[in-house]
Amino acid sequence: IGALVMGYDPTTVPYLGWAAGAGLGTDDVSQITVRGLRVGQVRRDFPAPYGNPQAQRAEATPPSVSITSPGEGYVVVEEAPVWTTASDNDAVAKVEFYADDELQAIVTAPPYRATLDLSAYRGQTVTLRAVAYDYALNDAEDTRTVAVVQSPAPGTASFQTVTLSIPTYPYTHCLEPRSNGPYTYHWLNWNCYGNPTPVPHDYELLVLENDYLRVTLLPELGGRVYQMIFKPTGHNELYQNPVIKPNHWGPPEMGWWLAAGGIEWCLPVEEHGYEWGEPWDWSVVTSTMGVTVTLRDTTADDRIRAAITVHLPADRGYLAVTPRIENPTGDDLDYKFWLNAALTPGASNTVGADLRFVFNADQVTVHSRGDDYLPGEGQPMDWPIYNGRDYSRLGNWNQWLGFFERPQAAGDFIGVYDTAADEGVARVFPSGVARGSKGFGFGWSHPIDWHEWTDDGSAYVELHGGVAPTFWDTATITAGKALEWTEYWYPVSGIGRLSAATAKAALGVREDGGRFHIGVHSTAPRAAGTGTLYVWDRGACAELGRWELPAIGPGDPFAASVATGGRALDDVAFVYLDSEGNLLAAVNPQDCLPPTSSVEPLPPWVETTCFTVTWSGEDVWSGVAAYDVQVRDGYEGTWTDWLTDTTAASAVFTGAHGHTYFFRARAGDLAGNWEAWGDEEWGQAFTTVLTEPAAVLVTSRKFARPRLFPPGDIVAYTILISNTGNLTAGVTLTDTPPTGMVLLTGTLEATSGLTPTYAGGQIRWSGPVTPSDEVRVTYVLSPTAAITFGLPLTNTAEIDGSVLGPFTRREVVMQSHVVWLPLIVRDMV
Fold first, then answer.
1. φ, ψ for residue 106 (rounded to 5)?
2. What pLDDT sits at residue 2?
3. Nearest to residue 809, comparing CAs of 753, 740, 735?
4. Which of 6, 486, 688, 821 shows its CA 20 to 30 Å from the CA of 24?
5. Which residue ranges make up each domain of the chain?
């Protein structure tokens, strides 16, 4: 008896048990491993000279599959999401996901995504594979090699190291040391270099990670920021050259440079400096606030040196970069320092036609260009529109172009945003210190040949930031001194474009189809109700739109839209404020919010006719310019101006014995906005002048619930008798219910003194009310058939016992049909 049984545990195969029972034995049973090839690898066509029906050729068009995240050479965590796209001329049957040769997931319907368990590869590299099949068993696959690190705890920032193998052209044996004054650099002997092929080289990466960003640093190649992976999208926003390949750019005296990607530190000369390919020392500090890595190029004391501090907070979606330029010598030194970021926002590690440069200047200075019809080196060029073409969009370029903002950085942020990928990068910096701002691209229609710097056809754009305005300018640092500043780099997505950025938020605003579309990105998680987005007409400060924002964060942007009303974008302000009125970000910022102010509390009474009234105000934008202050003599008095357009914050008021004075203030700011008068019943502060002891009952009041009541309903009344004087009041209350309303028996109550009485159509109560005390008199009235529907019903209570004699308090109710109407919310999105 012989059998080939595949895919089963031998102990479960019934034939073997039968053989043993028949005395045939099982010693000759063997297990073999059968490995097959996928159908697409072995399918062959054979001639079919005859046959009815005719032989049909099997469908042989393979599907396509691409891993969109992670990218090649990414650093990933142990529980790694893998995103793919797959398509077929008929239909995709399934996508299989492998870690090396281990099948970990099968997905049979889009989206073709799976989370793989890479814990067995922590600290190592692993190849991820996605294999797509159609129903004819044709297949295609895509791979990514990644390095694996441990996942950080939620809400924290972690630090790890990992080794990544990068194909590298052998060049180090052809480097020769040379010097420029105190600076040593390495010159590449191109004759020695020849025409090699890349070989794997292991590099140590420093990995900083929080809930929003995974940032890697590459100390061996200039201490650069190598990757900035935006975890909500899974994309590395920095260019990552798949090979380390020398090119002929860089400082002329060096004659070479590595377009490795990331953010590099360029000193002490322009055109990338000398330090981009040198090993940098590093140290790390971790805390509950985040991770801080300090990178140093040298400890030499005879030259300019740099320390770059890179901080990843535990709870922010940005990377804080603090360059520190030090002069340890005894002489003032001239130098140049620039940082340079190679950027490819989105999934593809290259740039697209819809990438847009975001600068604030209306003119730039050309550094270099490939097109003769553009201004030459050092010449001004209008930005972004030049000769009718929008050069902020990369797809409108022909050849390469490099440029500086003119005459220097015109704002505190720059960036790039790919509108097709809906993703970008913002750089926020102090333009008063880091005055240089530069952009560069290889071109679009006729770009520089990518073979110069890479092997896969990928390209990128650059954003530079420097101490001096241009490469031609030189900065000077005093002997023994240092210069440092902090800037913030962060990814943005889902906001349409990048229009404004601060360390706290970014806005994207565009006009389309008669509407302004606004996107809001926050660099920190913000709870619902803690931010407000305003849209104002800049001319009249008329409010065009207002949104109390829901919960947003680095991966959860907010989007809204509002009709243009025929307005141009430049005529409209888009302002994002926090719950305290602080500006988070704005496009065309306009101060359309008035200040707030109030009169400080006063004592309930004063012993002199002259007393001081104090007020204060706050304006978070331009500042308070002046105040108006009004006074009201008595509860029934009218508001009258006391002080107008005053810059004072206090003044002495003169009153009369027994009179109660109510005060209110409003403020105006330096932008011309005036606060509206408040309508508080007792003003913002009040006091009574008592040159001799007296009771003061002026703050007594009367109210009813409900004020609008349906037929058959009852109304509850409350009379609150309050004594703010310095003498006990002997109070008498007389209240006459409206005609047609009857008192419900047993509802008359008082919180002090005798129980109120009802006789002759009047409610009466009397009793003492001590200083700083109050008494509540309550009762319930029921309407009768004599009530006229819709006619106001007024009842008046007379209160006697106050310093200025009796006074009245009124309340008005009305019988009506109460109708609940549906709430219609106008869609502004």
1. -130, 125
2. 45
3. 735
4. 6
5. 1-37, 64-149, 158-493, 494-587, 596-689, 701-815
Q: How far apart are CA 569 and CA 514, in angstroms?
A: 11
Instruction: State the residue for tokens 């790890």.
Output: 160
Contact 599, 685 (CB under 8 A): yes
Nearest of 591, 425, 575, 572 to residue 511 by alpha carbon? 572
Q: Exposed, middle or buried: residue 735 (CB in 10 Å: 0-12, 13-18, 19+)?
A: buried
Looking at CATH, the fold of the domain delimited by 701-815 is given as Immunoglobulin-like (2.60.40)
Q: What letter would DSSP give residue 193? A: H
Confidence (pLDDT) at 789: 87
The DSSP letter of residue 657 is T
Predicted confidence (pLDDT) at residue 471 exceeds the cutoff of 50? yes
Q: Which residue has the tokens 């019809």?
A: 373
The count of other CB atoms within 10 Å of the CB of residue 352 is 17
Q: What local confidence, expressed as pLDDT, does residue 525 receive?
A: 98
Residue 597 tokens, joined: 């102010």
Would you tell me which CATH number, out of the four given (3.90.380.10, 3.30.470.30, 3.40.50.720, 2.70.98.10), belongs to the domain 158-493? 2.70.98.10
Q: Confirm whether 158-493 and 494-587 share one CATH topology.
A: no
Q: Which two tokens stand for residue 667?
A: 């403020």
**3-state helix, strand and coil shares in percent for the chain, rounded to the nearest 5:** 5, 50, 50
- Which CATH number fits the domain 64-149, given the four candidates 3.60.20.10, 1.20.1290.10, 3.50.50.60, 2.60.40.10? 2.60.40.10
Distance CA 221, CA 652 (A): 71
Instruction: For the beta carbon of residue 607, count every other beta carbon within 10 angstroms.
Output: 13
Q: 494-587 sits in which CATH class? A: mainly beta
Of all residues in the chain, what percent carry a pLDDT higher than 70?
A: 92
Strands 413-418 and 355-358 turn out to be antiparallel
- Per DSSP, 289 falls in state T
The pairing of strands 685-689 and 605-606 is parallel
Structure tokens at 672: 């011309």
| pTM beyond 0.70 | yes
| Residue in the structure block whose two tokens are 């006990």 | 728
Amino acid at the residue 663: F
Beta-carbon-side half-sphere exposure of residue 346 (alpha carbons within 13 Å): 20
Residue at token pair 């099968």 = 106
Q: Which architecture, in CATH terms, is 596-689?
A: Sandwich (2.60)
Which of 234, 464, 521, 527 lies closest to 337 in space, CA to CA? 464
Cα(467)–Cα(69) distance, rounded to whole angstroms? 36
Give the type of residue at 450: W
Instruction: Give Cβ neighbours of residue 827 (< 8 Å, ≥ 6 apart).
Output: none
**Number of Cβ within a 10 Å radius of residue 297:** 23
Q: Which residue has the tokens 């706050």?
A: 618
697: Cβ contacts below 8 Å, ≥ 6 apart: 721, 722, 723, 724, 725, 729, 731, 769, 799, 801, 802, 807
Sign of CA dihedral 443, 447, 452, 458: positive
Q: What are the distances in angstroms from CA 91 to CA 132, 133, 135?
A: 10, 9, 7
pLDDT at residue 205 in the model? 98
The pLDDT, as a whole number, for residue 37 is: 72
The secondary structure of residue 12, as a DSSP letter, is G
How many Å apart are CA 17 and CA 389, to the nearest integer? 83
Which of 7-16, 434-443, 550-559 has the least mean pLDDT? Answer: 7-16
Q: At CA 83, angle to CA 77 and CA 84, rounded to 5?
A: 145
**What span, in angstroms and rounded, lies between the C-alpha atoms of 411 and 418?**
21
Q: How far apart are CA 676 and CA 594, in angstroms?
A: 8
DSSP annotation of 452: G
List, for residues 492-541, the tens digit of each pLDDT value. Answer: 999 999 999 999 999 999 999 999 999 999 999 999 999 999 999 999 99
Question: For residue 738, is the peptide bond before it cis, meaning its omega torsion is within 30 degrees of 0?
Answer: no
107-156 tens-digit pLDDT: 999 999 999 999 999 999 999 999 999 998 999 999 999 999 998 999 99
